[in-house]
Amino acid sequence: MRLRTLIFVRFLGIIGQIVALVIVFFGLKYQLPIGQCTAVVITATAFNAALFFFYPHVHVLGEREAAAHLAFDILQLSSMLALTGGIENPFSLLFLAPIVISATNLSLGATLALAMLAFGSISFLSVFHWPLPWDPQNPLLLPPLYVAGTWTSLTLGIGFCLIYAWRTADEARRMQTALAATQAALAREHRLSDLGALAAAAAHELGTPLGTIAVVARELERDIPPTSPWADDVRLLRSQAERCREILSRLSQQDTGENTVAQRLPLLALIDEIAEPHRGFGVDIEVLAKTTGPLTVVRAPEVVHGLGNLIENAVDFADTKVRIDAEWDDTQVDLIISDDGSGFDAGILARLGEPYVTSRASLEKEPATDGIINAHADGHAGLGLGFFIAKTLIERIGGGMSFGNKPGGGAIVHVTFPRKSLENRSISRG
User: Which residues, in sequence order, are CB contacts of 245 under 8 Å at separation 6+?
Assistant: First the structure.
């Protein structure tokens, strides 16, 4: 939280207090301790002015600093209310402002501490305060039941605003962090997709100098006598140059044009390519087509990384087999990823696709007999971002996802794409 933000909000509050004092004391001619109220306003103004002039414009408050500033605001408001009627004053509603600011910016512990300070101030003001400024000819005497009701409403209001603002802000922070992870995953997939074009370009550029090296090596091998101590080195140099040329020749066969980001290939070939890194962990991955006829799709990073997360999750939780069924028509492509594991936990099934929702913490895989562990979460187990990233990337190109469990056991993930989104070459990087 920036200090200038709090200074600005506090100046607005001070201006409001000055306007209220002027209207009540000079306009309505109601009696109130104007000297003491002025002293409180001057103290707050001086404190705010000192912060404005002595701290840099971009000064960012730590949590303790911010909590101390908000505590000052609560105490300053309490002082003004103590001089002007306590919680009988309708401006006692302003106790909610520091709590909401804290709930949206600070930790739950700091917010609870400020809420307790506000609660203590309200309770104190309900008993100890100067009379509410009013017409001296017709003094206002509020019944104790009304005062108790005001105390209750302020207390409940602080509690409700605290919970609501903190939960909303916490969810926004979690969503922002998860979206940042999604963007990082997509950027990584784009970089991997670009490596093919980079390798082809490197092969093209290195072909000429390596050809020259090979020619010179052959001439040296021809001119050097077989008994020369350098003969073996020259033959080794020529053979390694030829090997480099063969490697670069294979790399240069990659298309350097539109293949940079989106390579076109059959749908089943793309699914096999995505599933390949997840094979070899003791779980069989079977890819089946329920529709006959060709379907050529774009190798988009959103599809590769999104489906890769879903397949990885299925392999992690499967016992022996993962099945991927593909079906399509003129408008839609359906993929059903199922496994023979225990299925999704019923407690999180409705929330799958939200960030940080996972049951990986309870995942326990026994080592296989060959020493390979039948799971490969690679450090991200328990974060609960896999489905969120997959869902975000798939929805990014117009797709959708749903989750469920098979009647006989095992999980099902149903992914749908508009056919045109898979066939279109111009998927943006975003």
Answer: 207, 210, 211, 214
299 lies in the same domain as 352: yes
- Residue that finishes a domain, picked among 142, 157, 181: 142
CB 340 within 8 A of CB 407: no
**How high is the pLDDT of residue 227?**
82
Name the average pLDDT for the chain. Answer: 83
In tens, the pLDDT along 351-408 reads 787 776 766 544 444 433 333 333 333 334 444 677 887 888 888 888 999 999 988 8
Largest CA distance in the chain: 127
Please give the structure tokens belonging to residue 327: 């079906």
First CA to last CA distance, the chain: 29
- Same domain for 297 and 237: no
Q: Is 133 helix (H, G, I), strand (E, B) or coil?
A: coil
Residues in the chain: 430
Q: Cβ distance 40 to 79 under 8 Å? A: yes
**Rounded CA separation 291/314 (Å):** 23
Residue 184 has pLDDT above 90, yes or no: no
How many CB atoms within 10 Å of residue 4?
16
The answer to whether residues 33 and 81 belong to one domain is yes
Closest listed residue to residue 335, CA positions, set 413, 418, 420: 413
Helix (H, G, I), strand (E, B) or coil at 389: helix
Do 291 and 396 share a domain, yes or no? yes
Give the percent of the chain with pLDDT over 90: 42
The predicted structure's pLDDT at residue 364: 41
Residues 6 or more apart in contact with residue 7 via CB below 8 angstroms: 48, 51, 52
Do both 418 and 270 map to the same domain? yes
Q: What is the CATH number of the domain that holds 366?
A: 3.30.565.10
Q: Within this chain, do residues 252 and 273 fall inside the same structural domain, yes or no?
A: no
Residues 19 and 134 in one domain: yes
| Residue 163 in tokens | 């919970």
